Amino acid sequence: MEKRLFGKTGLSVSILGFGCMRLPLRDPDDPSSIDVDIATGMVRQCIDRGVNYVDTAWPYHSKSREIPGESEPFVAHALKDGYREKVFLATKLPTWAVGSRKDMNAFLDAQLKRLDTPYIDCYLAHNLTTNVWPKVKDMGLLAFLDEALADGRIKHAGFSFHDNFQVFENIIESYDWSFAQIQYNYLDVNYQAGVRGLKLAAGKGLGVVVMEPLRGGTLINHVPEELRAMLTEVRPGWSLADWGLRWLWNQPEVSVVLSGMSAMDHVSENLDIADTAAPLTDKELAALDTMRERYLALLKIDCTGCGYCLPCPAGVNIPKNFGYYNDYFLVDSEQNRQRMRFSYAGQVGPHEDHTNCVHCRECEEKCPQHLPISDAMAAMGDVFPR
Questions:
Q1: Please, where are the H alpha helices in the chain?
Q2: Is the peptide bond before 311 cis (omega within 30 degrees of 0)?
Q3: Average pLDDT, whole number, for the chain?
Q4: Residue 386: half-sphere exposure toward Cβ, Cα within 13 Å
Q5: Short-list 90, 125, 88, CA closest to 4
Q6: 88-93 and 179-183 as β-strands: parallel, antiparallel, unpaired?
Q7: Is the model's pLDDT at 386 over the cut of 80?
Q8: C-alpha span between 177 and 211 (Å, rounded)
């Protein structure tokens, strides 16, 4: 598998990284119920095949964003038996939960214990946004990172990002970062940091980690048949994952692409794609340009299914509702839309459907995409009446 220089860090990082945000579950209704045996096999299979970047975070696989998740302890388990020494380990400071510089140290020390490691290779300030960035900066985030670098608890400092380019540019200019993590895929070229952010970060010598390369599965599971057929005509042997990942690796500014794999077949497919990555042709790039234009014209709400909005105080399963809402407009006939209505009625329980939304907007404060969730829930009544 190809390795790329991780910006100015000197690290040589695999182009495919393992993102531990969507691991397989024993109970699909309990995000903390990681199937440890299957997930451990997946992580180790990736490492055995050349993946050397593993990413996790404090809230991943938690029942609530306010309590620590099970992803970090799982990663500690998966990296035993000599696997820790084979990877660069990344985790994140939960910026929304800190109230002081003292809290930052407390979180980092707790994460070192949860991950059962004396140091973290790549430590990120999680989800810096217009509101979060000035708050944590004033609390002493940058001095905290300097201290953690000096005492060896972390080796490289970075940040993850969900906001507009202007905020991204301001953050980049404010500190000697080693790397940045951005949402980026062939639909999101001009969204959030976008391609301008990618080039800005790489141009300043930062490694760039890409998250949501397949938009949380949207670019696999929610592509209209006519658009699938268009891509298949150009490259009959490629899956939709091929298209998404190869487009990213075609750009030299991208250091590593995080894939949130949740099944062993995802592992096998992604590894095979990474092992055969090669430059795209002009025809292939043109097909994806057309794909982007047509797809974005159909999409109603840009939800990636990350789940940061949950739990909803009223019980609404926000990502599930938006998945059906987008699918309704992506299908190509009234007959299929009627099937979508029946499917929604059968699969989305009355306790979790859009009609339970009380418009408290708590979810909108937590949404990294800054989506108008409450308004969209109200609009869903036009296509999914109860």
A1: 36-48, 71-78, 101-114, 132-139, 141-150, 165-173, 194-203, 218-221, 225-234, 240-249, 264-275, 282-298, 318-330, 334-347, 362-366, 373-379
A2: yes
A3: 92
A4: 16
A5: 88
A6: unpaired
A7: no
A8: 18
